[in-house]
Amino acid sequence: MTFREQAKAAYLDYVNNYLTVKVWAEHNDLKEADARVFISMGRQLHEADAKDTDASHYTLEVKWPGSDEFYPEFGDYDRDTVADERDDLLLREPYLKEIDTRIIKTPEDRFTKKD
Hints:
Blueprint: H1 3-17, H2 21-27, H3 32-51, E1 58-63, E2 71-77, H4 79-92, E3 100-105
Antiparallel strand pairs: 1-2, 1-3
Helix pairs in contact: 1-3, 2-3
Protein backbone atom coordinates (compact mmCIF):
# COMPACT_ATOMS: atom_id res chain seq x y z
CA MET A 1 0.00 0.00 0.00
CA THR A 2 1.43 3.39 -0.99
CA PHE A 3 1.69 6.30 1.43
CA ARG A 4 -1.12 7.99 -0.49
CA GLU A 5 -3.40 4.98 -0.03
CA GLN A 6 -2.49 4.72 3.68
CA ALA A 7 -3.26 8.40 4.29
CA LYS A 8 -6.62 8.18 2.51
CA ALA A 9 -7.51 4.96 4.38
CA ALA A 10 -6.59 6.60 7.71
CA TYR A 11 -8.81 9.58 6.92
CA LEU A 12 -11.75 7.35 5.98
CA ASP A 13 -11.21 5.19 9.09
CA TYR A 14 -11.30 8.32 11.26
CA VAL A 15 -14.39 9.78 9.54
CA ASN A 16 -16.35 6.53 9.56
CA ASN A 17 -15.39 5.08 12.94
CA TYR A 18 -14.30 7.80 15.38
CA LEU A 19 -15.68 10.95 16.98
CA THR A 20 -12.37 12.50 18.07
CA VAL A 21 -8.83 12.65 16.76
CA LYS A 22 -7.59 11.96 20.28
CA VAL A 23 -9.21 8.51 20.42
CA TRP A 24 -8.17 7.69 16.85
CA ALA A 25 -4.59 8.66 17.73
CA GLU A 26 -4.63 6.47 20.86
CA HIS A 27 -5.95 3.47 18.90
CA ASN A 28 -3.22 3.95 16.28
CA ASP A 29 -0.35 4.60 18.71
CA LEU A 30 0.23 8.15 17.48
CA LYS A 31 0.60 11.51 19.15
CA GLU A 32 -2.53 13.59 18.68
CA ALA A 33 -0.65 16.29 16.73
CA ASP A 34 0.81 13.70 14.33
CA ALA A 35 -2.62 12.12 13.91
CA ARG A 36 -4.13 15.50 12.99
CA VAL A 37 -1.48 16.03 10.30
CA PHE A 38 -1.91 12.52 8.90
CA ILE A 39 -5.71 12.73 8.84
CA SER A 40 -5.55 16.17 7.23
CA MET A 41 -3.24 14.88 4.50
CA GLY A 42 -5.56 11.92 3.95
CA ARG A 43 -8.56 14.24 3.67
CA GLN A 44 -6.81 16.46 1.14
CA LEU A 45 -5.77 13.46 -0.95
CA HIS A 46 -9.22 11.87 -0.74
CA GLU A 47 -10.99 15.09 -1.75
CA ALA A 48 -8.55 15.76 -4.58
CA ASP A 49 -9.08 12.27 -5.98
CA ALA A 50 -12.85 12.58 -5.66
CA LYS A 51 -12.86 15.87 -7.59
CA ASP A 52 -10.44 14.84 -10.29
CA THR A 53 -11.44 12.15 -12.72
CA ASP A 54 -10.21 13.63 -16.00
CA ALA A 55 -7.10 12.64 -17.94
CA SER A 56 -5.35 16.00 -17.72
CA HIS A 57 -1.64 16.38 -17.22
CA TYR A 58 -0.38 17.63 -13.86
CA THR A 59 2.79 19.14 -12.47
CA LEU A 60 4.13 18.99 -8.92
CA GLU A 61 5.47 22.35 -7.78
CA VAL A 62 7.61 22.77 -4.69
CA LYS A 63 8.37 25.85 -2.61
CA TRP A 64 11.69 25.06 -0.97
CA PRO A 65 12.68 26.56 2.42
CA GLY A 66 13.81 30.16 2.06
CA SER A 67 12.07 30.61 -1.28
CA ASP A 68 9.02 32.73 -2.05
CA GLU A 69 8.18 30.95 -5.30
CA PHE A 70 7.01 27.52 -6.38
CA TYR A 71 9.22 25.65 -8.85
CA PRO A 72 8.22 22.74 -11.11
CA GLU A 73 9.70 19.56 -9.68
CA PHE A 74 7.97 16.74 -11.56
CA GLY A 75 5.30 16.96 -14.17
CA ASP A 76 3.34 16.33 -17.29
CA TYR A 77 1.90 13.07 -15.98
CA ASP A 78 -1.48 11.89 -14.76
CA ARG A 79 -2.52 13.13 -11.33
CA ASP A 80 -1.89 9.85 -9.46
CA THR A 81 1.68 9.59 -10.76
CA VAL A 82 2.43 13.18 -9.76
CA ALA A 83 0.78 12.71 -6.36
CA ASP A 84 2.81 9.55 -5.69
CA GLU A 85 5.99 11.46 -6.58
CA ARG A 86 4.98 14.18 -4.11
CA ASP A 87 4.41 11.60 -1.40
CA ASP A 88 7.84 10.07 -2.07
CA LEU A 89 9.46 13.51 -1.99
CA LEU A 90 7.86 14.38 1.35
CA LEU A 91 9.00 11.09 2.86
CA ARG A 92 12.58 11.58 1.61
CA GLU A 93 12.96 15.11 2.96
CA PRO A 94 13.86 15.35 6.66
CA TYR A 95 12.43 18.86 6.94
CA LEU A 96 8.95 17.85 5.80
CA LYS A 97 7.16 20.68 7.59
CA GLU A 98 9.23 23.33 5.77
CA ILE A 99 8.33 22.12 2.27
CA ASP A 100 5.20 23.50 0.65
CA THR A 101 3.88 21.61 -2.38
CA ARG A 102 1.00 21.93 -4.78
CA ILE A 103 -0.24 19.93 -7.71
CA ILE A 104 -1.51 21.99 -10.61
CA LYS A 105 -2.88 21.18 -14.02
CA THR A 106 -0.15 21.59 -16.59
CA PRO A 107 -1.20 24.43 -18.92
CA GLU A 108 -2.76 23.08 -22.10
CA ASP A 109 -0.56 25.21 -24.34
CA ARG A 110 2.42 23.06 -23.37
CA PHE A 111 0.82 20.24 -25.35
CA THR A 112 -0.34 22.15 -28.41
CA LYS A 113 1.82 22.10 -31.49
CA LYS A 114 2.80 25.54 -32.70
CA ASP A 115 3.15 26.08 -36.45
